Amino acid sequence: MVVIFGASNVLWLVFAVSQAFKMEIFPENRVVAQIGDVISLTCSTTGCEPPSFSWRTQIDSPLNGKVRNEGSNSTLTMDPVSFNNEHAYVCTATCGSKKLEKGIQVEIYSFPKDPEIHLSGPLELEKPVTVTCLVPDVYPFDRLEINLLKGNDLLKNKEFLEPMEGKSLETKSLEATFIPTKEDIGKALVCQAKLNIDEIDFEPKERETTKKLQVYISPKNTVISANPSTRLQEGGSVTMTCSSEGLPAPQIFWSKKLDNGNLQLLSGNATLTLIAMRIEDSGIYVCEGVNEVGKDGKEVELIVQEKPFTVEISPGPQVIAQIGDSVVLTCGVTGCESPSFSWRTQIDSPLSGQVKTEGTKSTLTLSPVSFENGHSYLCTVTCGHKKLEKRISVDLYSFPRDPEIKMSGLLVSGNPVTVSCEVPSVYPSDRLEIELFKGESIIESKTFLEDMDKKSLETKSLEMTFIPTTEDTGRVLICLAQLHVGEMEFEPKQRQSIQTLYVNVAPRDTTILVSPSSILEEGSSVNMTCFSNGLPTPEILWSRQLNNGHLQPLSENSTLTLTSTKMEDSGIYVCEGINQAGISRKEVELIIQGRENNKDYFSPELLVLYCASSLIIPAIGIIIYLARRANMKGSYSLVEAQKSKV
User: What CATH architecture does domain 116-213 belong to?
Assistant: First the structure.
């Protein structure tokens, strides 16, 4: 970068005459900083006690840093470094009538993190998978190069040579698709990112991330063995063992197929032992081998024969219980005067309930019902040398409360807002459906059909984003949740919540009326009235813009009145219309002109001032003209300023 000091070179030659007054700046010439870091520029002098310092950028933009002066040193600290700090900075030291200046160039980059490796899913044998190598927060990204390797083989290379439209931190990525094989087991994916900026000295210029490959094989060749047999006498026992091949080794799940075709989960072990079998235990038992990429099933039919005397269990073969409620199971006997009772679960887990027996009846009370109670319960009745059992299946559900409607923020006309409909403590969540209505029209729906890894109460939600308009005010959002468990009889199977919409409108069309005029003579009065449209009605805030760009609050009334104005009252006055949806701003420039002075005299001192001003004022006028012209373009350049004089 070529630094041109323009008119200040003349001052430099004038003030640099003395050899005793010297200045140094550190670091010299150029400093390289990563965005987000902290850097300090130090200016020090010798031969003057004490000097005065000032800092500026070469193009007179804001410093975007903090200055600290101590004795013969001045430090400009930039914390943190941002795009606004990429300038040539100039330190000016003044000692009496002497002035020295030195400049330093600040250059920036960003390469803060190692790349990230993401896979589109598990690596299943012989099935395509996409790998993404992602490099976050890079600048300048047009110097970035990404290499993706599998083992020692290069999968893909990418350079980002497209021109940058502006200064910004960019996240760049490379994608490649490959088909995993057995040979890939144990290999590594390597993502290498290089920031090829040879002209800037920084470390590291290369970052790397490694991810070890894990290749999966879906379960297959599932096999069941039953001992002693699949045909049993009532009261007998059977042990069934299941195995399945896959990588990683599949987990085994045992279920029983119900009359309606649904599966009732029994065990998560490879071996399932059923004791004291009854006729009701006859049926189709299913073993499934499951791992991260698939499952494979096998069925076996068990047949249990004979029954001696009658045992009934109520409320029936199946009871539907909501988690947290109480359930009483009753086992009754006919045809036996002095029966003995015992209760157990089908898979010999704890009862988690209280048993009470009186005569020919025995009750099992489950209070409160929990996931531990989701079993088939067996009531065993012994009468002499004979034994009978009855089973009752306790099926669980949870649907205790109405859904809750939440908004991501204030409803503002034209601004996207995300609405979520949350249904708490649901089970089974894979039977849940959520529908979201605006008025009578459905705008979003969602089902949760994914397999449940474990029994648990789940909070499920639906989210959607829409852009509200003022016409939506007064309409209602309705969140309807339905638990589709057709084989279970319970109420309610659907719940809903309603929320009325109120849409805000951000302030706009802010205008200022000035009476009598924005150009006044000193001592006059002026009324400035501000109007702004919005919903709710915006509040008005009047401020004055200070020389440093900050705003000085003046009034919260719509009309700002200045009486007996002075020339110091000249400046930019700002009106802001404010409500909870936003801010709209309008400015007006007030110019106070001094009254004409009729005194008419002339002195030698005025002659001297007149001669001096004849030289200084034109120079100042040219500088002000060039500065205003630069501001009209949105920037200021001393280079352009000098060209315009030619």
Answer: Sandwich (2.60)
Measured distance CA(140)–CA(202) in Å, rounded: 13
Domain map (residue ranges) of the chain: 8-109, 116-213, 217-305, 310-397, 404-500, 505-593, 609-643
- The CA-atom distances, in angstroms, between 468 and each of 445, 498, 501, 579 are 19, 17, 9, 17
- Token output for 388: 């009978």
Provide the β-strand partners of residue 588: 573
Alpha helix ranges (H) inside 154-310: none
pLDDT at 185: 86
% of the chain at pLDDT higher than 70: 88
* CATH H superfamily, domain 310-397: Immunoglobulins (2.60.40.10)
Question: Which tokens go with 367?
Answer: 């209070």
Residue-level pLDDT at 400: 92
Residue type, 18: S
Query: SS3 letters for 306-368?
Result: CCCCEEEEECCCEEEEECCCCEEEEEEEECCCCCEEEEEECCCCCCCCEEEEECCEEEEEECC
Summarize the confidence of residues 508-524 as an average pLDDT.
94
Which residue matches tokens 């299913």? 286
Kindly report which listed range (265-279, 445-459, 525-539, 552-566) carries the lowest average pLDDT score. Answer: 445-459
Q: Which position has the token pair 């009846």?
A: 361
Two tokens at 434? 């959520």
Report residue 355 as tokens: 């048993």
The whole-model pTM stands at 0.41
